[in-house]
């Protein structure tokens, strides 16, 4: 894997150290996460964040373990780091960090206090909500190490305050149980019981959200570090509280060995692919209904659109086709009126996308093509034919095939945004894209051809599907090319002066990246030509991926910053989306354009934000600072797929 390590100039600087975040996951949707400097900058940062019934329904438990070194002289040096509502940063243990690195995907810190060097390693148990934190004396000593347990038990999206009830801490052998929800275990537990008031999260402040909470100092562990190699370790776990995990050092060793196996199974061609294969593993989780995909950490749950866009990269490019098969079968069971369920972050089953179902058709087709698993194709064939039939007849939200040209249209209703560009501000879609969006119809043409091939593989007649495919493809080639030299983003859209459903229509020729799918998909309706792809790249391409809107458009917003309304307003109006590098790379290759240097910027990004992973978004203007989730499934999946398919 690529070497990710930082010295004191990054670790000890709050700007550089807190801009870089690490993530360790438990395979269930829970995680531990924080910053290189150890300072919590988000409400989501913690050492034990527990998934609920769905990956999105997470709760924060163990917030931190603040180390303090006690010397024989009586001196006490604190190694933790907190920022407070007053603006103070205290303690400032990051100033004593001499190194941070990711070893096999696991974070490791090293503090130096004179000749005393203490190392911390952290890992989670795969398949169980359990974190192990190991402290080891590297040199110097003897010293005593204290570990102050800062706790809460709250929804990951909220805060807990001292004006409410304090967490209930019950003593048990070797530690305590907090609010009946999670257990702490380690050496020499000493209960405390005190509020730490006004812990501040600077990233939440920057996002226009409530930045402060109160933490409960539940107690502390302590142990002697007499000579190099001695350890003091703490375990924290939820679920079966009476079932004690293995020793913390064993948890770390097992996690390290598993990560190596995950990478080896993917058969990476180089260190970047190895890093991406391990990053992909974080998003594949096991729920009560089987495998699923977390769209992004630390705040997203499962979204069917993200899952299907990510499918090939996460499952087929990492040799996890068996898990992928199980996932596709489970998602097929959610089809209703020809639409795939979108569980989203609410935990409710919703049907509110025009494109997720078409991405599902694509995922099934790619699964069968890559793996040769015709049995799955045969099994799902009736459901997939039902998707086409429902779209021909018309389904929810006015989604239907236009009998005039065979293209797919979405009628839309006020307040809906059915494509991946689905941001809303105060309930109003920023980019409703009512009519016939270009990527939706590229996916429709692609899906018809893919389904026709699956039908023929099953020994059935696919003549009608091929006729639908040819008709829609011909209409696409006629309707979508624009006089500007690129493709319309939406055709037959309501004219701006008319409400949804109004009589007047127009064709939207704003330069957006959605058209890339018209050239990049396996059964794309168009063959790309170099001049057109270069025009698109000239207006949209950045080192981290294509912008969502060209900078010369009046609606362009170059910074994805501010409060929720500001960020949602900018989300698809110029913000960079790294996942779109995949479609761009495919289109460029098909246009016989060189792409050898295309990934240089995004590969460097693996050490800049979410360490070893790829962010959700970035600013449309230089220096294209990363925004959104630091760890995003489709960003990782598409980079891995595009690099691997280009070999």
From TrEMBL:
State the source organism's domain of life: Bacteria
- Tell me the ranges covered by the Glycogen debranching enzyme bacterial and archaeal type N-terminal domain, including all copies: 20-226
Which residues, if any, are the signal sequence?
A: none
The chain positions of domain Glycogen debranching enzyme C-terminal read 279-641
Which InterPro entries does the annotation name? Answer: 6-hairpin_glycosidase_sf (IPR008928), 6hp_glycosidase-like_sf (IPR012341), AGL/Gdb1 (IPR010401), GDE_C (IPR032790), Glycogen_debranch_N (IPR024742)
Enumerate the Pfam families for this protein. Answer: GDE_C, GDE_N
Name of protein:
Amylo-alpha-1,6-glucosidase
Which species expresses this protein natively? Micromonospora reichwaldensis
Q: What is the organism lineage in this UniProt record?
A: Bacteria, Bacillati, Actinomycetota, Actinomycetes, Micromonosporales
